[in-house]
Every structure is written in C-alpha cells, then in structure tokens.
C-alpha cells in the first residue's frame, strides 16, 4: 500500500455508509448494534481523513427516504446520533474538525437538533477537516429547497432575478461552501447513489465496495484513495499527458 504522500488525496470524499443492518444480521445481532459499530467506523474514517489532509468528508447519515423505516429503527438511530454527537465532541474539537450539517434539519427531533447546533457552533472556528453530516438529506429535496429559497428571496426583495449560472445556483444549496465531490464511496455492495449529493457529485469518481460499513476502516479507506489516485479524470476533455 503506498503511503499517504505518494497518493493523490481527494479534496472532498463523500461516503454512503451502507450495510450496518447486514453486518448485524450476519452476527445474529439486532440492527442497532450494527449502527453502533458504524459509528466506530466513522470515527476511524474521520480521524484518518484529518491525518492525511482530506479537507471535506461528507457522510450520508440519514436520508429523506429513511423516514419510511419502522418507528423503532428511526428512534434508535436518533438516539445513537444524539449520543455520538455528545461523546465525540471533545475528540472532534481536539482534532480541529469542523462539523457541518446538510439536509432538512428541522425534520429531526428538537433534542437532536439542539445537540447538533451545539456541536456545529463549538467547532465553527476549527480549520482542519470539514465533516458534513447529511441528515434527513435527499439530493432532490436539496434542489427543490434551493428553488424554494430563491422564491422566498425574490418575494422578500432580496433577489431580483432567478439564478442563471451554476455558481449562483450553488449559493442556494444547503451548504454553498461544499466543494464538488472528488471521490464518492458506497459500502455494502449496492451500486446506486440513493439520492445522495446529486448536484455536488456530477463529476465524482465512484467507488463501490462489498465491505459493509462497520468493517470500512483506515485500511479500506487508504485502498479506496489508492484506487482514486490511479484514475484519470478528464472532465470531458482530451487527455493532455
Ligand atoms: C446504513 O445501513 C445506515 C442507514 C441507512 C442509517 P443500513 O441500515 O441501510 O444497513 P443495511 O443496508 O440494512 O445492511
Ligand atoms: C443510503 O442507504 C442512506 C444512508 C446510508 C444514510 P439506504 O440503505 O437507505 O439505501 P437503499 O435503500 O439501499 O437505497
Ligand atoms: Mg442499507
């Protein structure tokens, strides 16, 4: 395995953390233990990204579609999220991680929103890795919400015409500071986007792995980055090398 300084480090990595349920089922455990193990995997990935100089890591944590899961599963995911926010806060601060969130955040229970707001504000001045949690997030919802925002701005006289360029449209997204995704990783074996970062992933390199999310650790991340490093990104142009 090449070391980090021999690799091309993506600026923005996005992860679809799939396979927690199957990880638990394979072991005869309840799904929530799979999710709990998933938090540990995310902790290791966050730490590694910070160490190797990734600037943005966006983690698909809960989708707009996930609200269709049984109430008990949703509740245990929300509790786990709240607990993780609390327990990880000190380490995130120590590691200079800035936490951000995208999605229909007001759909989350108020007690989760409150903890999330605290974490975001406590880490606001950090200058290392930007960790963005996608919560109640859907790529289509984000585009619709951008249109709604443009309409509201226009109605209140703060916008005098519709956005005309990609840059202007980007300003209306949940977090205009998120750069384009360079590497999009999906664990768990499915080969689909499941409505994640549709706008931002337009030219992302896609990497699908059979590894279930709880087993996706430093070694698997470095292998994914090594794969990314070997790819030639042409962005529609002709290779000039
Ligand atoms: C991903 O794991 C975590 C969330 C969607 C919250 P899953 O819960 O989808 O796990 P599988 O796909 O059932 O194995
Ligand atoms: C995608 O996983 C959403 C998250 C990882 C949060 P899902 O398990 O919800 O996706 P599908 O149902 O396989 O498309
Ligand atoms: Mg799944």
TrEMBL record:
Mg(2+) binds at residues 18, 205. Keywords: Magnesium, Metal-binding, Transferase. GO terms for molecular function: ditrans,polycis-polyprenyl diphosphate synthase [(2E,6E)-farnesyl diphosphate specific] activity; magnesium ion binding. Binds 2 magnesium ions per subunit. Pfam families: Prenyltransf (PF01255). SUPFAM superfamilies: Undecaprenyl diphosphate synthase. Coiled coil: none annotated. Its EC number is 2.5.1.-. The active site is at residues 18, 66. Gene3D superfamilies: Decaprenyl diphosphate synthase-like (3.40.1180.10). Substrate binds at residues 19-23, 31, 35, 63-65, 67, 69, 186, 192-194. GO terms for biological process: polyprenol biosynthetic process. Its cofactor is Mg(2+). It comes from the Bacteria. NCBIfam families: PRK14830.1, uppS. Catalyzes the condensation of isopentenyl diphosphate (IPP) with allylic pyrophosphates generating different type of terpenoids. Homodimer. Belongs to the UPP synthase family. This is Isoprenyl transferase. It comes from candidate division WOR-3 bacterium. The lineage of its organism: Bacteria, Bacteria division WOR-3.
């Amino acid at each position: 395995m090449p070391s980090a300084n021999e690799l091309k480090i993506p600026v923005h990595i996005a992860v679809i953390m799939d396979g927690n349920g199957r990880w638990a089922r394979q072991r005869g455990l309840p799904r929530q233990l799979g999710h709990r193990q998933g938090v540990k995997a995310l902790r290791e990935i966050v730490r590694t990204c910070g160490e190797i100089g990734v600037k943005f890591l966006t983690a698909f944590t809960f989708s707009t579609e996930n609200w269709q899961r049984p109430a008990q599963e949703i509740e245990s995911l929300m509790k786990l999220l709240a607990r993780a926010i609390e327990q990880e806060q000190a380490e995130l601060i120590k590691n200079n991680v800035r936490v951000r969130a995208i999605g229909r955040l007001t759909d989350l229970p108020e007690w989760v929103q409150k903890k999330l707001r605290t974490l975001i504000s406590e880490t606001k001045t950090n200058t290392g890795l930007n960790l963005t949690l996608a919560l109640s997030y859907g790529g289509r919802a984000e585009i619709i919400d951008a249109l709604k925002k443009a309409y509201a701005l226009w109605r209140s006289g703060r916008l005098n015409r519709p956005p005309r360029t990609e840059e202007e449209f980007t300003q209306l997204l949940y977090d205009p500071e998120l750069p384009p995704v360079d590497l999009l990783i999906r664990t768990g074996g499915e080969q689909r986007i499941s409505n994640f970062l549709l706008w931002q992933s337009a030219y992302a390199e896609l990497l699908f792995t059979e590894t279930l999310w709880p087993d996706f650790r430093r070694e698997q991340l470095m292998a994914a980055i090594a794969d990314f490093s070997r790819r030639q990104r042409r962005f529609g142009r002709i290779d000039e090398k």
